[in-house]
Amino acid sequence: MSTPSSTRFATALATDCRSRLMELAHEVNFDEGTRLFREGGHADRFWIVRSGTVTLDVHVPGRRAAVIESLGPGQLVGCSWLFKPYSWRLGAEAMTPVRAYEFDAERVRALMDADTAFGSALGHWVGEVLAHRLQAARVRLLDLYAPYGSGSFL
User: Whose CB has fewer CB within 10 Å in the chain, the N or C terminal residue?
Assistant: First the structure.
């Protein structure tokens, strides 16, 4: 599943907000198979993918983690940094080599508090991403575990 363009960084935020956020970015690279984070870990950063693919997954006891969504260029990896207690609610893994912008969550939250217009815009963007991810998780879990998948009309 891919995220609609309205949640991609370049189209979701106004130019001035993107510029303010990018002042806090630094570039990172992840090899294929690298775990960016695991459920329950401390959410102290987030990423915007520049190139490559990152999958989001959920731990399923007794089974392999269920992949919820695949993320590509311009997409946000990690939303839990914005909400207390700042712990990851999903896991993430680089499925290909990934280049990304990394952001320190504490610095971004401080900027959001200092500049309410920026904070509102970023909060709305993360909210849009979360709404999309919730729906993607719902559909994916129905596909995996419901008797007739997400197309069932019982």
Answer: C
